[in-house]
UniProtKB/TrEMBL annotation:
GO terms for biological process: protein transport. One of its GO terms (cellular component) is plasma membrane. This is Biopolymer transport protein. Signal peptide: none annotated. Its main location: membrane.
Length: 134
């Protein structure tokens, strides 16, 4: 009788190691294939665009608040340092497109200074100003 009971216990055991291996492999696959979206780090009240055209995605976002603050890579930046920050970010991940997200209440002069700094970093860069429809 004792032998029969031991055999039943051994047969009832289920090995979940192969299932766990598959789950971990699937988890790694989904983590690697997920695309991450970079944002400027702040919310701006963007103006609406009547003739919006979709542009290719960029990895460098610059946000300009209504009070004139310039944000890059989720931190505030002086307007004079925009060029140096663009060069640093392009060294990390090369791109030809930079998106400016300016608040509709932002001063035009600040936006133009940021554009000048972008062109000082590299005149061949494509600048896109994001509106409500972009």
């Amino acid at each position: 009788m004792a032998r029969k009971r031991i055999r039943e216990d051994e047969e009832a055991a289920i090995d979940i190691t192969p299932m766990m291996d598959i789950v971990f492999i699937m988890l790694i696959f989904f983590i690697v294939t997920t695309s991450f979206v970079k944002e400027a780090g702040i919310d701006v009240n963007k103006p609406e665009a009547t003739q919006a055209v979709k542009k290719p995605s960029a990895t460098i976002f610059i946000a300009i608040r209504a009070n004139g603050e310039v944000w890059m890579d989720k931190r505030p930046v002086d307007v004079e340092r925009v060029s140096a920050n663009i060069e640093r970010l392009r060294a990390e991940s090369p791109t030809d497109t930079i998106i400016i997200q300016a608040d509709k209440e932002a001063k035009h002069g600040v936006v133009m200074e940021v554009m000048d700094q972008i062109k000082a970093a590299d005149p061949s860069l494509v600048i896109t100003v994001a509106g409500e429809n972009n």
